[in-house]
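Minimal example, chain plus zinc ion.
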Amino acid sequence: MNWIWIVLILFWTGGFAWLADNARTALRNRHERKMELIEAAKQERLAVEAAHQPPEPVCGCTHHLAKHDKQGLCHERVEVPTAWDENKKPLRYEAAQCNCQRYVGPTPLSQVYAEDLTDRA
Ligand SMILES: [Zn+2]
Ligand SMILES: [Zn+2]
């Protein structure tokens, strides 16, 4: 009768170890899958947020829309080279107004605030 117990115990311990190992692997796999899902959801949310963000209103002259007046003239101060060496490398700079004539960047949509329609009857 004793040998049956020995076989059973051997089987149990081996079987339990195998089961525990499998369970651990399964748990780890599930954890990894979950992390991947969370990561994918985060990426998706970031993409959606980026899609809803209006583009930066920056002109072709690299200056912000706010630096341009109503006529489109850019008022940003820029450094203009006033002297060059023989290699056409600027030697001296002078402050001047950006000579951009017209803002060509994206125009932000006007922010309109609409109050919620509510029934106040
Ligand atoms: Zn400009
Ligand atoms: Zn400019």
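Residues 59, 61, 63, 67, 74, 76, 98, 100 surround zinc ion (ligand 2) (CB under 6 Å). The two ends are 87 Å apart (CA to CA).
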